[in-house]
## 1
Amino acid sequence: MLSICIPVYNFDITRLVKDLHRQALELDKAIEILLLDDGSSEDFKIRNRVLKKLPLVRYEELPENTGRSKIRNLLAAMARYPHLIFMDCDSAVPDNHYLGRYLDVAPENPVVCGGRSYQPDPPNDNTYLRWLFGVNREVKSAAERSKNPNHSFMTNNFLISKELVKKFPFNENLKGYGHEDTLFGFELKKNGIAIHHIENPLLHIGLETAEEFLRKTREGIKNLVKIYHMMDKDPELSNMVRVLKTYENLRRFYFYRAYGLIFNLMEKPIVKHLNEPPSRLFFFDLYKLGIICRQASIR
């Protein structure tokens, strides 16, 4: 009935999988837990290999990193059951009813998003920026997400029918980090498939440092630019992504080149601010806009 699909990369997933395993046994349904390691370092592989001993668990390792889109397609192909739950490996389940809430809505809804949560107290180290962004931009109630259901799609925690993933696989032309969820949500919308949202968040526990988060942000902007061209600069895509909409407004008034030049002067002090908590998301937004304006391929 249900395949839980977890791409694994450089994270200890033993606690997450044991919690899911316990819930699966209590439900007494046809459930499997698929773990596919995407080229992690050996120390993480050693920690996670112990999970092979658990009934219901299938653990496999890829010889090298394949990327966030391809590994999800591989997991979908491995799955035995018609309903799939995809989740990020750096997550924790909120309670003992996480799987049950998805099973309740699976028969009537081809795509369901459960949301994301964070610890309420801010960290006092260099993961503060990632926490701040998550709390202010990613944490939304099901009611909020339902206002623009396909705009709020995130790959960290969702249920989908296997048939639908086969029909609309994740685009493997996107490499590196970021915006594969934007493209997937956009393609579902274009094909008239609405995303159902429920209150079933996973806790995001694997916070990156500000330096790592900014690196991933730059990678994500590259993917966003690629998607922008793949979709022939579709205005509906721009309406889904705020930084893209802002860029288009600058471009409309021929200000994007000027902002790119200004950003060259501002970048170092902005990065310095973002690396020193308490930082502000206003400067993070300026950073993202500067990166997208500086992308030669989008001009």
## 2
Amino acid sequence: MTGMADLLEGLVISHLGQGIAVEHDNKIILCQTRRKLHTVAVGDKVLWTLSAPEQGRIEEILPRRSVLLRPSRGDKPRPVAANIDTVFIVFAVEPNCDFLLLDQYLAVCENSNIDAALVLNKTDLPQSGTIENELLDYQALGYTLYRVSATTAGHTGLGTLKQALKNQVSIFTGQSGVGKSSLTNAIIPDKELKTNTISATTKHGRHTTTAATLYHLNGGGDLIDSPGVAIFGLAELSESQLAHGYREFQPLLDNCRFNDCRHLHDKDCAVRTAAEQGDISMARYQRFLKLREKMPTAN
């Protein structure tokens, strides 16, 4: 039995094949997990013990202040990343601005104790008036909007975004094609070097590009890079949580006649009335109804 004195605290920075890279005291140790342990996520703080020279075993996951879950096939949702302070939702005029996906991410963040901010990339491309009007709605709700261009000379707007990433743990998310990886590479110019260091230290050959990885930023703060589209599913949300996930609905929810109001055709629904009267965004209300239809629990 391991004594308490043998337990060391570490930070999970990546999954590598069957192993997990844990950072402790500026060193990276390749760890396995105790069999009965729940799935360990990048960003987790863990207690671990040395099992062999430069190898360890994760004994316990320390309490998380937040977690993002990803639906997994036929199984319970798996954690993508833990202890995140802010999700930065990246979108762009090309391929197209998917505001439905954006609302889905925001609804999950509102229910997960995680702040959310919006990053409009590719600002060198012409913007449409329709998109600008939508963005005004989000800004009116208190969501910060960063306008950046990762590819233009001088990386427009990147300085402001880097400032925002300081002193916190962040993750970028967004549909494919919005320039998330070029944005990450601009913010972490030595990313490949850091990635190779993880692989070399843990003697695990080439680091897999599909794994989420936590990087320490030069100016302070951590950025979790999760390649691909990390869809944070609606499966974990109830219908009432989805409604709560729309920030402008929150002050109205207690004014609906029925406690179990679905905000659809229900009599005296304060949310629908506010949308019809133009007090809240009708476009956002209609997207809420679309997301509600997509939910496994919707009837």
## 3
Amino acid sequence: MPPDSPPACNAHCHPGRRTLLVTRPAHEAAAWVQAVQAAGWPAEALALIEITPALDPQARHQAHLQAAGCDALMFVSAQAVRHFCSPDGPPITARCWAPGPGTAAALRATGIAPEQIDQPPADAALFDSEALWAVVQPQLHPGHRLLVVRGQSADGRMGRDWLEQQCRAQGGQVHSCVAYRRSAPQWDAGTAERVRERVRNGAVWLFSSSEAIQHLQQLLPDGSWAQAVALVSHPRIAASAKQLGFGEIMAHRPTIDDLLRALSELPAP
């Protein structure tokens, strides 16, 4: 463990605080767990989405050539940035659209200048396509070329295309590139029983996508959620948690500060 990492923290560290299960993909979950633990909350990573690359080197090269002729690239998530941008690829000169702060941070980490990135304002009520559209709509003109860099589910689903529809309605040309694939993790009997124990002990679930909730239902079909708490970052995710049967659902924006504020408002276990 690196010397600057916080000590491992579980429910025994803070008996009055529930353990937070961070269901983001493993690459992202670690940073969230570390930040929550540093703030004094017990937290564990329990990735409910596995990410694998969809672009081989030749396909990535072709996608970069296509991007070079575009006015803007929309990255649907930080994962899209990580699986599309490569150190040996050509520099990206187009505008880069990010629906939220995590995606924008990933773009900056690859060397994209902050002034090249368009994203919702920091005080936006939600970070999604609608909030992004309010920022980028003035860029649209007939013939505007947009490349959407996205992921694909195991069943072939691509996700919402609301923003693409808005661009086309204003005369824009929209293409897409699948940079990564999403799938449910594989659990053995021991993992499933460990998760059941967390449920019995009142763990709190952090969801950043409806797909993670769908995978949870597949992985633990006998789960009982009436007494469980879900922290969600968007109304669509809240609807999925409600459909699964979560007894309490609390909304927050997908930032660490907003998450910690939501945790502080949790009822005592």
